[in-house]
Structure formats: C-alpha cells, structure tokens
Input
Amino acid sequence: MFRAIDAFINEMKHVSAIGGVYIPNYIPYLLLVIISFVLLILSWRKANHKALVPYFFCTVGIVYFFEYVTLILFKGYVYFPGVFDNSYFDNVLGANVSNGLIVPSAAIFIAAFELGFWWIALIAAVFMGIEELFLHLGIYRHFWYKTIYTGLSLLVLFHMGKWIWRIIRFRTGRFIRFNVLYYGNISVQGTFMFYLVAIFHLFFFRVNWFDDPSRGHIAFITLYFFVDSIFYSLAVILRAHWLWNVLLIGGLACINFLLLKLSVLEISSYWVLGLLTLLQTGELFLLMYMRKLLVNENLYENSKNLV
Output
C-alpha cells in the first residue's frame, strides 16, 4: 500500500484547476506562503512588539507537536506540493507550509489584532474551506483525518494563542519563558534541520520504525528535538554558567558521535559532525536572544502601563 501511495505522489507533478487549466502543485502552497508573510507584516505593524518573534516560533513548535502525532506517527493525511523528489520530504514540506507557517501566522494576526470569537470562528471556517479546496485539487489527501478536526483544533489553538500572547506581554515568569523557548527551539531546529537534509543530504537518521526510511528519519530527529529542547531551555532560563553550556553542547556532540558509531546516524563526511555541533551552539545563542526579547519587551510593556 505504501509503495502505491509513493508512486502516486511521484506521478503528481501538476494539478488540474477549474476550466481544465494545469498549474504546478506548488502554486497553491506558494500562495499560502505569500499570505503568511502578509499576515506577519500586518501583525508586526499592529503590535510593534519584539516578543512576536519568540511567540511566532513558539506557536510553530506547538503546531509541530500536533503534526508529529497526526502526520508522522499516525499518517492522517499527506501533502503533494511536488517540490522534492523524495516523496516523504515533499509531504513534510507541504505540512510546513500548510500548518507550520500559515496557521501560526494566522494565530499571531488574531492575537495582535485581539480578534473575538466570531472572527476566530470565521478564520477557522476559511481554513476548512482551503483544506477542502486542496482535497478537490488533488494536492492533499486524507486517510482517517477529517476536515472538521482542523476547524475544532484551530478554535482551540487560536484562543490559546491569544491567552499566551497576553501572558507574554505582561508577565513572563520562568515557567512561561521555559515553554515559549522550548516550543520555539523545536520549531527552529526542526525547520532548519529538515531543509538541511532535504536539500543538501548532509546526514540521515536511519531507524527501522516504518517501512519508509525517510518517515523514520523525520520521526527520530523530531523526537531528538523534543528531548534536547528541554536542556536548551533550562540552560537559558536558569542562565546557566558558561561551563554548563559547554557541557550541554559537548554532550550533544557525544550523542551525535555515539549515534554515528551505532549506525543510526549517517553522514556524507566527517566534517558534518562539526557542522552539527556548530549549529547546535548557534541554537543556544539564538535561544538566549529570544529570552532577552521576552524579558526586555515584558519590562517595557509593564513600564508603559505604569505611566
């Protein structure tokens, strides 16, 4: 069954539109990207708040949790953007655009403009309409998943997003900062590492969890990020001594080397190990910057309310 699905994905390079006009599969996804950037620009102009940056990545991370269960583990649906030759990476690319970009952008827009319930319900209904359109165009397919699940989950996510944004603006205690940075780290690592593998093929995690090795790679590396993000976030929130930060990066480097020796991690060259360590170090500094945005913007917002 999986081979038949993969063959079907590889054959779908174009989508038939209304009137018999053929367009590349990626065009509707590209339109979602454009809409996402418009929403982000409008939200930034409205809020004028640097904490939107960690808030956006946090929302992406929350969506990734949902995707990990419904898309990767239980295969509720599949995307056909027709960009990558690897059918599963192409599927994940579609998920990144459909859920990892447009949904968080809409959540930020709703929070920044403080939209009420009926606006949220209308936007959720629009997303359901887009999903049905993608199904009709043949660039997206359901297995056990239903469009109504999207509407219900978005109602929850958008309301939760408004609540999180209010907390971020006015009272970011350590628990809130930890969660924002935790989910933010998952989204940044997950997105960047995915494209690093999908485009440059520098490394690959080979586990026998599924029939499709690429699905196993995505499942394993995402779980890896779920775990290492705990230690990243703790180190940043607790403002750990530089020695602890060195131990964290050194520990991750040792884990990468161990996975290589166990034949779980495959690399194109040994310099890739050094690159991974460098990127993981950069991720630590990025989280430190996100924490700074959360703290400084929170202090600024509170000072405005005292004037």
